[in-house]
Amino acid sequence: MRASLRGWGGVGAMAVGCALALAFVLLLPLTQSAGGSGTGEGLGGPGLATAGPARAGNCVDAQAQNETWSPSSADGTTIDAIKARTGAKRKLIVGVDQNSYRWGYRNPNNSGAELEGFDIDLVHRIAQDILGDPDAVQFKAIPTSQRIPAIKDGRVDMVVRTMTINCERLKDVAFSAPYFKTGQQVLAPKSSSITGYNGTLAHKRICTAAGSTAYAKLDADRKSGKLVASADISVTVPNQLDCLVRLQLGEVDAVVTDGALAASQAAQDPTVELKGAAFTTEYYGVAMKQGATDLVRRVNHILVDYRDDGWQASYDKWLSATLGADSAASKPPAPQYLRTS
Question: Which tops the pLDDT comparison, 227 or 12?
């Protein structure tokens, strides 16, 4: 190589060599054959990489909901392992909430206080498609702060728990296409002087759930000066509903959470209300383990059918009364896919 460089004139040869190396790197992904489950066993057909969506490294939160795989009804290694469970263990293991009114909660008026709500309906639909039985589900109540650890540790197959898709979380888990659109809002007593996400939060104690996008937003905004510096965001809780309890006890002045959840809490407590408009745009997705590409694609396939048949009925049953029959949230978000087969 050194002899060749001397013959070519050194610097020019190095430039050519770098160009060739760059071209090789850029073309290399196109030569890879494809996988489906993330374990190297092909499921998705030609052109699909096995490690995950390639653009995730350049992710932008506003487009994070598109960082997912195209729908597929095919089984793969992850789904095969779920189906291989025998007897009473042949169930889909799903992390959910049991305290979010109308999303995932135990209704004391039902026999056995079974879990129900908008998220729970979706879980039953996924179980029906994968295991042929909508009730083949083992529900695990997961605190807000434990959603990602539960997936990474293998305690659950997926989490369906009002979980926002964003770039930071995509570093740790994979998401389905979005199934709901919402945004952060302020919840406070009706008698409060707080009018929204603005200067009226000065010297106010604000509660958020640990590990939530609400806390991340408040922390970032206070550092950048978008949130008034005197706002106290030190109060965090494991479960988002705990914030409502703190508010009722007078331990905090306001709660910041997804508007969809805040509306349900306002329905539970007529002394509180939403203050101001949503100040972010967020999308909920089903979270799964990175590399479980076959399961991600299967859930996306299920969501295609669910948007056409099931989503609206579930919304009308659980959320229409609190979010409105004709609100921006009343229709399922249109999916886009990073990779297609």
Answer: 227
